[in-house]
Every structure is written in structure tokens, then in C-alpha cells.
Amino acid sequence: MSNNISVKGARANNLKDIDVEIPRNQLTVITGVSGSGKSSLLFDVIFSEGQRKLLESMSSFSKRRIPMMPKADVTSIKGLSPVIAIGQIRSMHNPRSTVGTMTEISNYIRLLYATVGKAHCPYCEVEIVTKTANHMIEKLERLPKGTEVELLAPVFKIYGEQYEVLFGEIREKGYKKVRIDGKFKDISEKIELDEFKNHHIEVIVDKIIVEDGIYNHLKKSVENAFTLGSGYILFEIKESSVETKETISFYKNYGCSDHHIVMGELKQNHFSSNILENSCRTCRGLGVRIQAEKQLFIDDPEKSIRQGALGHFNAGRRMVMTLSKNYNFSLDTPYKDLPEEIRDMMFHGNKGEKISYWTKNQKGEWYESRWKTHYEGLLNETNRLYWHATRKGTLPTPGSAEQNFYTRHMTERPCPDCQGKKLNSQRLFVTVNGKNIYELGNMDMKELLGFIKKVTFEEKDKKVGDQIVKESIKRLELLIEIGLDYINLNRRADTLAGGEAQRIRIANSIGSEMTGMLYCLDEPTIGLHPRDSYKVVRTLKRLRDLGCTVMVVEHDLDTIKNADTIIEIGPGPGSFGGEIVIQGKPEEIMEDNRFLTGQYLTGRKTIALPSERRTSNGKVLKILGAKENNLKNIDIEIPLGVLVSVTGVSGSGKSSLIHDILFRKLYSIFYDKRIMAGKHDEIQGVENISDIRNIDQSPIGRTPRSNPATYVGFFDKIRKLFKDTEAAKQRNFGVSYFSFNHKNGRCIECEGEGEKRTDLQFMPDIRNKCPLCNGARYNRDVLEIKYRGKNIAEILDMSVEEALEFFEHDNTISYKLKVMNDLGLGYLKLGQSATTLSGGEAQRIKLSKELGKIKRKKNNLYLLDEPTVGLHMEDIQKLLTSLNKIVDDGNTVLVVEHHLDVIKSSDHVIDLGPEGGSEGGSVIAQGAPEEIAKVEESYTGQFLKELL
Amino acid sequence: MYSKASKEKKASIRARYEKALGDYVEKIKHDPYVIAVVLGGSLAYYDVGEDSNLDTMIIVKDNADSATHRVFTEEGITIDSFVMKRDRFRRHLEGIIQGGQYHSFFSKAKILYTTDDSLRDYIKDSNYFGSKDREIQLLNFYSGAFYSMYKTRKFLYIVGDVYGSYSFYMQMVSCLAQIEVTLEGIIPLREVIQQALKLNPTVFNKVFIEASEMKKTEENMTEMIKACEEYLDERMEIAYKPVLDYLADVGEFRTLQEIREYLESKSGQRLPFLNLREIVRRGWVLDSVEEKRITDRSQPLLHEPSFLYDPSMVKEED
Predict the structure, then answer these.
(1) Which of A:381-410 have CB within 8 Å of B?
(2) Closest CB to A172 among B130, B268, B288
(3) Neighboring chain B residues of A354 at a CB cutoff of 8 Å
(4) Same-domain check for residues B15 and B108
(5) What is the rounded CA–CA span in Å between residue A750 and residue A766?
(6) Which residues pair with A229 in a beta bridge?
(7) Residue A168 is nearest to which of B32, B86, B268, comparing CB atoms?
(8) CA A867 to chain centre
């Protein structure tokens, strides 16, 4: 096998027909300024071609079922092996996906519980044995002939539901006899029970008279009882039966001797909350329950109820009129001026008080009827209807009017039944070393590892048990090694940061122990504190040592330094890049002047410290009593009018503080009150800011029809310029003619997409330039209109830099373009589709949009989560310039950041820690970077010390 | 009264049927997969006629498969056999509401053969008509009675077809008989009118026998309808008690859909034709409307009837 992967003639995106040899079985880092073509080389050429070739080798049957990839724009690639890309995509929106399921550790833990879990009696919690169905049948068959045995299944009602409903369910499943607190009842009769008492209810699944040849129906009945009793089964020998040694000893050493309960054999899937039989019946295994929230009903407290203060709950409703007439309040009083008890009654009802009902006659006039009623309240009513629909399985489809109503007025709260544990109580009665499976999932990785190591097995389970322990330990150690020691298995996948998810996938790959693979990684150190970035490097080297080829797009200097081979692509972004600037081992090229990154690595080039620190404008924003996740009831003071960095190792609580509490709270104040902030007491000083802006890395648009020009907003202006040309006026073309989305202007053949897709069944779709418009996206009439010699398609094809020159005379457009250029986006094409932009690019486009309109507002608070992601040192300089500009205009910029160059350039640093997970969540240091550097306990401080 | 010859003929037919059945069961006994044979229908109920068939149910082991409905013949006699696995049979028997059609098969059923004595108890128990089941069945029968009543009136007064009206009238009488029998805690059988005639001869002689014999005129029909209305009125409060109890309990408006779903969730049974028009007409409950959409994706709001009941007020009126 060749020792190199040799790429010839790579032309994807901005790559300039380059040839490159990448050594196999090495750690190769590809670096270069943003937009230089690093990702194009690694993902659009190497990964995409590797993937395509692999898929092509499959049968045409499989090919029809797998979306095929287009051939990469490259002459040839030799020496490829199966390729795995581990990117930053945060696409896991499934609330059922957790760290446990992602890492597959959950599978092992579930297996552990199925193997050595100790079951407990649901009534007295005494430890009981588990038996297989065959075991039980054998035991029953050994009883003297003629013995009457009843098989019962203990059942529990749904939280907040009546016993009657449970009986209805039992009946529907085909059972009629139950035993309630020891007394037999027929549920075709009415049974009155105290709803607030916990009754022991057992369904009589079958009655059996021991005889020969009952094996088959015994088996069926035992299985039925298992299903109904969620694994628990109860045997009762009828008193009238013959009392022999066997019957007397039946209960001894067999289940709970008081309650005669045995647990059936446990299987791995018994502990999966995604299976309805095991999940909490209230939340169906989600751990959260949707509940109506009072504040979401109040549309505008300044308005009266008649004017719609409470949305649909307005004067037209009979109940509103009934309440108004009975409790003497006016429907024209602004909601906020209504007495507290009236407002409370709207939401929580009138506590059962009988009031006369008001209704309308045929002429539409209100009159007091003879009838009395009471009112349950908006919240109770909404909850009742929603939960009813959930149980019935008749929830409205997403996007429907009803669903919209629920989304607008309800939020997620921990499930009141299982408190977020997701499993039903029967499953939680099973423990290993005194802990149930949920408690295990809540341990952080280190604690869990310690726990698993201590688990011991009986001789019969040893073979299976040791294997489970071995596999779990291996995976846990990998996760700890890669710096994820602070997360736990129950953590929902959709709450993971991109970097965390990526590191989990890296750990999984190592765990798979495959050799000869080709890994393509995109900035695996994102979101890691400099203290921990060596862990990623160490892991990547392990992957390499397994016999894999590891290729990484990376800006982190530590990782670059540790690579076996460095490839720098550049020299500039976009059309100025796309060439191999330098390639070689670190020691060979470090001193080479062409190696731009090397200049930063060797310290020949640095980001300068600011000459002086700005001082705050005297106002502050205070977060008091922050308690979300691992935050330890801390108080934070954010000085306004300066650049503030929030730092700390991963998992120390930065995002909980800034995103979950500060952003969500402010967003709910300024925009959408449905947003629920994380746990905290109070935020003071909100009046000191005029707006909140979150500039994250989410895409600016999900369709190819969105592009930087439309997003930043100067495309309208450009279209207007075209509309105002003489030629357009003559033809009576409005602005809509210059949009490739509008039927007036777009090419009729490709409908404005610029390309035609041909579906070739099991071969990849082929995208060709549209034969009619030749990729211009507009129809011929529109393309004939020229503005200063260029038509609209030609303008969309310009880079930001070119456009800046072209629109020099137009202040509005050129100002926005200049801002983009200043942020290092000069290489982007105006019409580049949003789907091709990286997270970092998207963030900078958003930032430039903000900067573009900065003059209009003052005292804004800008929140940025790791804005340096995807940025080369060169670009970080540009970013800092822009951030400083925002601050100098009177705003406050708050960044959550690990990049020391940004931290050292901040005016104020808030360092959280000391560690991640349960050991984090405290404030370690606050103040100027110099002050942080003096704090011994601060990891950030220690790293800063070297830079200051 | 039957003549001697006719009695003898009947006896011989019966003997023929019994012999056929005996032979049939004998053969089955050799099948290790069969647990029980149950006889229902004519031979279990009354006498058989020359063209009668035999209705049986064969209960088989849980590991055996068969089509649900099989037809066999024995000495030229057709034997309809429903084949069920033990588990399915048991759950079907316990799960279905008592008083329904399926149930009447078992109310007089005889076990001809079984290897599993526990089944005897199950069949015996199936004759038990629980109070909750009675409540639900009464509501069903009342809804059926009102439906036939509207149709009877429509054909009589609007269409002007007195015979068409009479055919619906007889359906209504069946419902009345079901109500009568259910109120007595007895399971309504196929011959429910005969059951009712025994229980309440005064009413059912009039509405069934007299009505059958009378001349079918508008006047006569009107009189009969009136008698039926009176019958229904007298028992209506008992029949609608579950609905009134529920509405009294919540003390608020509930839509028809909500009331039905509540009753269904409580009983585990379906109530597709619940009719509340009559209790509104009698002023027992107040009706209003709630705004609802047809499908969850629909925009236009339609009016769904909703109901309120206040027991204290009804008492005051009394």
C-alpha cells in the first residue's frame, strides 16, 4: 500500500488545481487563514471522494437507498482508505438522545442492570430474586395436582389520574378481576377508592389449576403478567388448595415472602426509557412534561381583557363574562390594574365556588342564566386538555393551530411523576450496589468509573459481568482522557456544545479500535480550555497509533505544534488562497517565513496587548443567586461599556451562566417572554442596557437561496439601484424582477437555482449548470439590465472585496461591505449560498450585520459564544478590532472564550471553576486580566501570566 | 299446544342433533391441542328445528393456530365453530362489555368438554353483569332508542310512510326491552323482547303485542310512540346518571367529545352514539358551545355542543 494519500488536481471551491501528498498513519494538521480552502481540501475533496468510492462499491440495491455523493472536483486521489468525518454538526434534536446513548455506555450499563441488578419488592422494598419465565413455570408445575394458583400483576396509576382510568385501561387489555389492598373486586362494578391514597392494585391475569399439559398456557399467562406488571409478577395459592410441604414452601426463598412477588428475568431493553413499557407513564420517557405557564398567557398587561390582554381569553367568552359579572371587575380595566386575587383566579380558578353562569341570547345580548358553575382556571384547563390529548395519543400535529396554541402557552418542566428520571418506578426498584440506573446516569464520568470498578459479580454472572465492566471502563476512560470527565450519561445530546459532541465521537472511534481508517476532523479542540487541549492531542495520537491516518483542520497552536505533518493553505482567503503555502514536519518549516502560522508559533508575530484597559461606564448588570446546573448560588457583576470575557475550564458553568441565565432572561424581557431562564434569584441593572444581541454560530439560513447579501441586507439596496436604471424603468421592472426567488426575474428553467439536478437512481444526482441561464439564475430580460456595466448576476458573483470597490460611491452598501471586509470576510462571494458557509463565517456575517447598524442603538449587550472558532490567528486580530469597535461605540461585549489572545485583550475577566461538572460553578476570579493572572487557583490566570 | 306427532318429531330431531354433537365432541377429545368445547345457540337455549345449525366455541392451546371461524358438518348438520386460543378467549371474555351481543352466546352456554377446569369459572363469571357495565350499556341502549324514535317520528309525520315508521318503531321496542332487562341486572339475549315481556308484561304487552296486532294508522302509531316515550322518561334519570354525575363533579362545561372520552376511559368501552339531546330538552343540563376545529390543522372555528349540570338547581326546581 502506498505510504501517502496523493491528491492530484484538487479544484473544489477556491482550490487552485493543487497536488498534495499526505502521509498515511500520521497526524496531519491542515491550517491557514479562514476561507483559505482548508475545509475544501479535507472535506470536499478527500472525505467526499473517499466516501463516494466506498459507497460505490456497494450493490446497486443498497445504492438506491443511500444518498449518493457527487464526484469531488479532483483529477485523482490515490491511497484512500475508508474515511470517517467527525465534524461539528449539532443536528441531534432528538430529546431521547443522551451522552449515554451516543457513547453506547448506556447499553453496557443497561446490560449491567439486567445481569446483576437486584430487584426489590415494590411494596416493602425488600430485595427479591429474579426468575425467568421457565423457572416460574417449573416451580408451578411441581405443585401438587389440583392446586389453584392465581397469577397477579401489580399495577400503578398514572400520576394525577383517577383510579377509574387505570381500571378502564386494565379492562381494555382484557382483564376484569383485580385485587385492591387484598380484596378481590370485579371492575365491571363501580369501585370507590380514595384517590389520594396509595392502594395496592393487582390484576388477576389468570387462574390456573395445576395439571399435566398446562405448560403452554402457563407460559402465555406468565408472559402476560410480566408485561402488565412491568416485570413483576405475584403468585397466590388459593387457601382452599391442598396444603402440602410444597405449597407452604412455595413462597419461601421465592420472591418477597410477605407480598409473594417475584421479578421476571431482566433484559437489557427493560432499562431503556425509549420503550413505552419501561418509561415513566406520565412523560413517556422524556423526563419532562409540558405545562401551561401563567406568564405566557399575558399578551400585554397594559391592555384590558376586552382588548386582548390574555389573548383568546377575551370578553367574547362566556366564562370571562361570568367571572366579570360575579366578581365585579371590569373587562375594560388594564390587566395590570386588576386586583391580585382576580388575576390569580383567571389562572387558577375560583376554588370551586359556585357562581351564576352568564350567557348570550339569540340576539347576542348577555343575560344571567339560572345555572351555577365554577371555574377551573386557564392553566388547569390548558393542562387538562393537553394531557388528555397526550394520553389519548391525539396530540395535534406540529404546525397546526392547536399545536401553536400549546407551544405558545406551555413550557417544559421536569416530569412531576418521575422527576426527570424517565423510567417507571418498577425499573428504579432495581439497583446495583444500592444505586438505581438513574442515579448512575447522573454521576460524572470519574465517579461512574469508580463505581463500575467496584461492581462485583457472583460466579454465574462473572463471565458476562466482567465483559460488561471491561467495555464500560474502556469507554469511560477514553471520555475522561479526552477531557469529558465532567459530563454525565443522562445529559441530553441536544444540550452538548459542538466540540463536546465531536470529542464524544472521537472517543467512540477510538473505542471501536478499527485500524487503517482515515479520520477527518474539524477543530476538535473547540470549547476546550487551554489546560485541556493537550488531552485532545494525546487522543488523536492514540488514534494514529492504532494505525489510522488522522487529518485535522485546526487553528489551535498546541495541536499544530504537535502534528507530524503540517500543511498550510493560503496565502489569503477566498480567491487569494487555495494553494499549498508550505508542507512539512513542524521542526523543518517552523522558521520558514512563508509559514504564517509558524510566525505565531515561534512568537515572531503576536496579537498585541491593548495599550490600556478601558474602564466601565460606571453601570453594571448583576446576576444574583445563579444556581442553574452546577452553579453554586453565585453573584456576578458585569461592568458595562467594556469587553468582558467569561472563562473557565469546560463544564465549569460558563454557558449556564451566560446563555441559560443571562441571555435567556434578557431575551425574555426584551423579546419573547416564553423563554424560561435558568435558575437564579434576580438580574439587576437591566435598565442599563437597551438591547440584547446573541451572535452565535448557527447558520444564517438553511436554504441555498439565502446568502450574505440578503442576510446583511444590502441586496435590497442593490436591487433598488437596478430598478432605478433607465433600462429598467423603460421596461417597467420593479425590484421583484431583480430577485432570483421571484417568478418575475428568475430563470424559468432552473427557477432561480442556477443549476439543474438530474436524478440518476442509484448513481449520485448530477448537478449541471442550468442550460438556459448558464448559472446566472435570472432570465434573459433581467440580465440585459446593467448597472455601471454589470448585470445583477455578475454582481452576485463578486467577492466582498471586489464589490467594495464597485460600490465605493454608494455609502450604505460600501459601509456594510467594509464591515464585512474588516472582519476578514473579503473573500466571500455576495451570492454564495448560506449552506456552504462555516459556523465561524456565519457568526462573522451576523457580527457584520450588527456592526453595520451599530449607529442606531447604544448600550447594547452583545453576547458571543467562542467567536474565535474557525479563526486563524490573523483573523482573530481582525475580530478583536471589530469587537473593540463595538465597545468603543458605547456597547458592552461579553464573550465566552478559551482563546487566551481574546482573554488577554479583554477589559474584564470573569473566571469560573475551579473544575468542570460538580466541582465547578464557583467564581474563581473577577477583574482585569492582570488581576486574574495573580490568582493562583485560576487555571486561566496561570496561562495568562505567560502572555502578559 | 303441540300435538303428539309434533312432539315426537321434535324429540327425534333433538336426538339427532345431540348425537351429532356427541360424535363431534368425541372426535375432538382426541385432539391434544383442544382445551375445551362450548355449546351456545339454539340447542343450548331452546329447541332445535330441522334447519338449525349448531354454534360452538372451541378453545385451543396458546401454541396452536387456526382460523377464527370454521364450519364443520357432522351427519349432515352444520356446526359453526369459533376457534380461539385460551389466552385470547379469556381476555376477550373479560374485556368485552357485558350485555353485548357476544355475551348472550355465553349466558346460556354449556361446556361440553374441557381439560382445564379454570375455564368453567371464567364462563360462569361471564354471566355476572357488573354495575359499571350496566351503566354504560344503558346509555348505549338509550341512545339507540332515541335514534329509532326520531326515525319513527320522521317516517310517520314527515315522510308520511306509516309502515316505514313501524319498522323503526320495532327497533325502538327492542331497545326498550334491552333497557328493561338491563335495569333488572339481567344480560339481554337475542330474544330480549320475550325476556322483557316476562319482566314487565304491562308495558311490553302494549308496545309489542298490541302494536303488532293493531291497524297501522298515524293515530295508533302516535299512541304507541307516546307509551314508549313515557317508558323512556320514567327511567331516564337512572340511565343518564353517569353523565350527570360526571358533569356535577366537574361543575363546568364539558363538550360531548370530552364526556364521551371520559366515560370510555373509565369503562374501557366504546360509546360511539352517546346522545345528550334529550336531557337538554328536558332542561336537566344547560347546553352551550365551545369553539373547536375539525382537524388539528384547520383554521375555522366551529361550535361544538358543551354541557353544564348543576344538581342543586335541579332540586330547587323540584
Answers:
(1) 388, 392, 396-397, 399-403
(2) B268
(3) 251, 310, 312
(4) yes
(5) 14
(6) none
(7) B268
(8) 19
Instruction: Over range A775-797, report the average pLDDT.
Output: 89
Chain A and chain B share a number of CB contacts under 8 A equal to: 138
Smallest CA-to-CA distance from A745 within A703, A786, A797, A783 is with A783
Share of chain A above pLDDT 70, in %: 94
φ, ψ (nearest 5 deg) of residue B304: -105, 135
pLDDT of A7 above 80: yes
What confidence tier does A522 reach under pLDDT thresholds 50, 70, 90?
Answer: confident
Angle at A497 between CA A492 and CA A501, to 5 degrees: 75
The domain boundary residue, chosen from B209, B239, B269? B239
Residues B86 and B159 in one domain: no
Torsion angle in degrees (nearest 10) through CA of B14, B19, B22, B28:
-120
Q: Identify the domain boundary among B110, B125, B140.
A: B125
Q: Are A680 and A624 in contact (CB under 8 A)?
A: yes
Give A79 or A318, the one with higher predicted confidence.
A79
| Band of pLDDT at residue A437, cut at 50, 70 and 90 | very high
Q: Using CB atoms within 10 Å of the CB of residue B316, give its burial: 0 to 12 exposed, 13 to 18 middle, 19+ buried.
A: exposed
Could you tell me which residues are beta bridge partners of residue A153? A203
Q: How confident is the model at residue B317 (pLDDT cuts 50, 70, 90)?
A: very low
Chain B residue with CA closest to A163: the answer is: B266
Q: Please give the residue range of the domain that contains residue B311.
A: 241-317
- Answer yes or no: do A168 and B63 touch at CB < 8 A: no
Q: What is the pLDDT of residues A568-579, one digit of tens each?
A: 998 887 778 899
For A371, phi and psi rounded to 5 degrees?
A: -85, 150
Same domain membership, residue B158 and residue B54: no
Domains observed in chain A: 4-86+514-584 (3.40.50.300), 91-117+266-287+417-495 (1.20.1580.10), 124-265 (3.30.190.20), 298-414 (1.10.8.280), 620-698+857-947 (3.40.50.300), 708-836 (1.20.1580.10)
Are B115 and B158 members of one domain?
no
The pLDDT value given to residue A126: 85
C-alpha cell at B272: 360511539
Cell of A594: 512563508
> Tell me: the pLDDT tens digits for A391-403?
777 777 776 777 7
Nearest to A171 among B125, B268, B310 (CB): B268
Whole-angstrom CA distances from A621 to A615, A618, B162, B193, B290 are 15, 10, 86, 83, 47
**Minimum distance, in Å, between the CA of residue A379 and any CA atom of chain B:** 15
Mutation site for A-interface testing, chosen from B88, B92, B244, B265 by largest number of A Cβ within 10 Å: B265
Q: Do A167 and B266 touch (CB under 8 A)?
A: yes
In the 3-class helix/strand/coil scheme, how is A118-146 assigned residue by residue? EEECCCCCCEECEECHHHHHHHHHCCCCC
- Residue A164, C-alpha cell as written in the block: 377509574
A685 vs A532, residue with greater confidence: A685
Q: Is A176 near chain B, with CB under 8 Å?
A: yes
- Would you tell me the crossing angle of helices B218-239 and B162-183 to the nearest 10 degrees? 30
ipTM of the complex: 0.78
Cis peptide upstream of residue A396 (ω within 30 degrees of 0): no
Q: What is the CATH number of the domain that holds B181?
A: 1.20.120.330
Mark residue B208 as left, alpha or beta (left: phi above 0; alpha: psi -120 to 50; beta: remaining): alpha
Disruptive mutation site among A150, A176, A184, A185 for chain B (greatest number of B CBs within 10 Å) = A176
- What is the model's pTM? 0.74
Q: Give the mean pLDDT of A235-256.
A: 68
- Report the distance separating Cα A538 and Cα A260, nearest Å: 55
3-class secondary structure per residue, A392-407: HCCCCCCCCHHHHHHH
